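Hi R.,

Here's the chain you asked about this morning:
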Amino acid sequence: GSSHPHAKAKIRILKESPRWELAGVSNDDGPTRDALLGDPSIRVVAVESGVQRHAEHARLALEAGKHVHLEKPPSDNMRDFRELAALARRKNLLVQLGYMWRYHPAINAILEAARKGWLGDVYLVRGTINTITPAGERPGLAVFPGGLMLELGCHLIDPLVRMMGLPARITPFLGTHGNFNDRLADNTAAVFEYPRAMGIVSSSALQANAFQHRNFEVFGSNGTALLRPIEPGTLLSIDLVKAAGPYIAGVQQVKFAPFGRYVADFDELGEAVRLSRPLAVTPEDDLKVHEALLRASGMWS
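And the predicted structure, written out as tokens:
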């Protein structure tokens, strides 16, 4: 499929990449899709359909023997995604999820600092990803109880859970606070409780000029890492009590090249397919992230 809002940018990247040959683009159904799935020369399929059909279309691609780049979220329930993961494992195929900041250099620098203990004992992770959603786009998002947490909060739940693991408890707060005639959960938050730490993720459809306020920060006993704004992500602030790893004591501004979405995702997927090697994010981590996302979205059953 090609109806997801991220599809256009991904198609452009694949057309321009010297590492990929774009075989074709299909709508969610029809003869073009069937031709793509039936072509033995095509090794990878990107699923960019509506969220309700992600799992269905990914299953078709896996059953056809294709590796899959699967747009987020991979399904609207846990059972379907568990079945996809099991199918991919049986057929020795890769499934790469389309969380857009998995290859963000500054976010990955924060994860490295936390995992290697440079921040000390992490006690709080906090992130915000807001937007302003036009009235005409709200009904499509309101289909799911999770609303903005499912649609956007997923991009911050992903690094949180991959860094900290599954929490002991997740409490969602799914408010409908905009002055619209719908039931979209447009002002949302979730609290992730760990034995010695807490995570807080918030996502709203109501913030003007939202992109410049998106942020991700990790607090530890030796200091803090803060990325704001997340895109273009050129400046990461590290503030340490004691020097650790490559970072000095005190406040340090670490510069990065502007981040471009999806390019590194497809670079890694292509290398993994060509060299028959696993992806950096494991299927086990993907399952944990999806469980946490569904719980944070009030969609766990």
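The two ends are 27 Å apart (CA to CA).

Let me know if you need anything else.
M.
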